[in-house]
Design a protein that fits this description.
It comes from Rhodopirellula maiorica SM1. By secondary structure, the chain is α+β, with helices and mostly antiparallel strands. The protein has a domain at 5-51. The protein is 33% helix and 9% strand. The chain has one helix spanning 31-53, and strands at residues 11-13, 20-22. It is elongated. The relative contact order is 0.12.
């Protein structure tokens, strides 16, 4: 069964038989696909951490672009 990388370590249920299990990487049938998913997840988490460290800019601090009609 395939699950999203974000669900690894979580309890998930099969939509067919409703069996519950903890998602893990024990199945070695698709290690490359998992590695790509994990790499993507790590890059996204890194980008989110960087974004959180950036000072936020509110709308009042930015210069709005005015349109001439």
């Amino acid at each position: 069964m395939e699950v999203r990388a974000s669900l690894l370590g979580c309890t998930v249920a099969c939509q067919h038989c409703h069996a519950e299990f903890v998602a893990s990487t024990r199945d070695e049938s698709a290690p490359q696909a998992f590695d790509r998913s994990l790499d993507l997840l790590q890059r996204v988490e890194s980008a989110l951490r960087r974004a959180e460290q950036q000072p936020s800019t509110s709308a009042s601090q930015t210069n709005p672009v005015s349109e001439t009609v």
